[in-house]
């Protein structure tokens, strides 16, 4: 069951705090901004702010969702700061003028989307079985990264979006370590795929009755030892991959869409900003490029659902920065939904 916002005086105080945050956002961004608050029947509270008409890759937007109105209210100041920064950088950016190759530092937000698409969906048991049937050379126990990357799925992590106590098949949810220091160690299963988790479902079956599938929920990357400034210094010259605007995976590829990317020279951020941009690469190849894990941490309890086979579920991404020793950036409009270049 959901953790509903506390009633009575405490509940009114939370509502007032949230309303005050939304008024502040309206004052900062003006009448052109779209600011929406919604509450589902199960108690999930969503806030979404968009700075103008919806234009994918061009209009800054931010959102948060949680089963706790106080959590949502506390996240609003950070959301306002992020939107201000994104608005400034979008005004400053110039187009990506062809492929840009080199080292890249994934911001925690971008890293979260990358990990969700690359490791989360790949570790869903039905996707794993489909990949095996298609002849993939990746199997449980293989090494994904040389860097000590550890990824867990924690469905019981309240009050985040996507959290739950029992899955839609009634199985108690339990945490699963997908990667341990770069090794593929676990899969997310439901009743039909429980043989892949020792004969017992991990409690990740989500979806309509009779059509539940294994789904990731609250995906968390363990922080590493490198502060962000050290990651920039290690990179030397390359790109900071900033605010993500989308991501998906198809045919073994991972796609990451970005509102802006920023040039790094001599281990320092420059004023050169480009975008919108997209990264598209084979999952195994890009994962192998992870060379360091940041000590920072960002939680994105997302208002945006994750859709699989037409069914949408909530999700949360918790991640530090990730350093790639190489990736290729392209203009966002150069890639089709099939992962092919125009």
Describe the protein's architecture and organization.
The protein is α+β, with helices and mostly antiparallel strands and 342 residues long. It has two domains: 81 residues, 2-Layer Sandwich (Double Stranded RNA Binding Domain), CATH 3.30.160.40; 250 residues, no CATH class. 24% of the residues lie in helices and 31% in strands. The chain contains six helices and 22 strands. Strands 4, 11, 12, 13, 14, 15, 16, 17 and 22 form a nine-stranded mixed sheet that branches. A six-stranded mixed sheet has the order 7-6-5-10-21-18. Helix 1 runs parallel beside helix 2. 46% of the residues are buried. This is Metalloprotease TldD/E C-terminal domain-containing protein. One of its GO terms (cellular component) is cytosol. Pfam families: PmbA_TldD_3rd. Belongs to the peptidase U62 family. InterPro entries: Metalloprtase-TldD/E_C (IPR045569), Peptidase_U62_metallo (IPR051463), TldD/PmbA_sf (IPR036059).
Strand tally: 22
Oligomer: single chain
Mean model confidence by pLDDT? 95
Percent helix, as a range, is 10-25%
Low-confidence segments, ≥5 residues, pLDDT <50? Answer: 1-5
Radius of gyration: 20 Å
Largest sheet: 9 strands, mixed
The shape, in one word, is globular
Number of domains: 2
Global structural class: alpha+beta
Which helices and strands occur, and which strands form pairs?
Blueprint: H1 8-29, E1 34-39, E2 45-50, E3 61-66, H2 69-92, E4 100-106, H3 108-120, H4 125-133, E5 151-153, E6 176-180, E7 183-184, E8 205-206, E9 213-214, E10 218-221, H5 228-235, E11 238-241, E12 244-250, E13 253-258, E14 261-265, E15 268-274, E16 277-282, H6 283-287, E17 290-293, E18 298-301, E19 306-308, E20 311-313, E21 316-319, E22 322-331
Parallel strand pairs: 4-11, 10-21
Antiparallel strand pairs: 1-2, 2-3, 4-22, 5-6, 5-10, 6-7, 8-9, 11-14, 12-13, 13-16, 14-15, 16-22, 17-22, 18-21, 19-20
């Amino acid at each position: 069951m959901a953790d509903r916002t506390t009633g009575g005086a405490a509940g009114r105080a939370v509502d007032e705090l949230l309303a005050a945050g939304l008024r502040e956002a309206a004052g900062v961004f003006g009448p052109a901004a779209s600011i929406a608050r919604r509450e589902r029947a199960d108690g999930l509270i969503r806030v979404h702010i968009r700075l103008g008409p919806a234009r994918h890759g061009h209009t800054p937007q931010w959102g948060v969702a949680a089963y706790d109105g106080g959590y949502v209210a506390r996240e609003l100041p950070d959301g306002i700061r992020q939107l201000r920064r994104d608005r400034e950088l979008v005004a400053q950016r110039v187009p990506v003028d062809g492929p840009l190759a080199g080292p890249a530092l994934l911001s925690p937000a971008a890293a979260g989307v990358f990990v969700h698409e690359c490791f989360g969906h790949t570790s869903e048991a039905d996707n794993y079985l489909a990949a095996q049937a298609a002849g993939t050379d990746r199997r449980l126990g293989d090494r994904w990264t040389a860097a000590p990357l550890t990824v867990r799925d924690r469905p019981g992590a309240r009050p985040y979006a996507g959290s739950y106590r029992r899955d839609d098949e009634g199985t108690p949810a339990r945490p699963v370590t997908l990667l341990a220091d770069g090794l593929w160690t676990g899969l997310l299963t439901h009743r039909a795929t429980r043989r892949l988790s020792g004969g017992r479902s991990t409690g990740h079956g989500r979806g309509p009755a009779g059509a539940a599938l294994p789904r990731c929920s609250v995906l968390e990357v363990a922080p590493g030892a490198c502060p962000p400034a050290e990651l920039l210094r290690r990179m030397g010259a390359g790109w900071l991959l900033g605010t993500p605007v989308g991501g998906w995976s198809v045919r073994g590829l991972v796609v990451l869409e970005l509102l802006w990317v920023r040039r790094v020279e001599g281990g320092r951020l420059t004023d050169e900003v480009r975008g919108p941009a997209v990264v598209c690469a084979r999952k195994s190849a890009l994962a192998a490029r992870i060379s360091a894990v940041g000590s920072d941490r960002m939680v994105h309890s997302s208002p945006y659902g994750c859709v699989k086979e037409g069914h949408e579920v909530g999700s949360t991404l918790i991640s530090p920065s990730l350093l790639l020793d190489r990736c290729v950036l392209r203009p966002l409009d150069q890639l089709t939904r099939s992962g092919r270049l125009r």
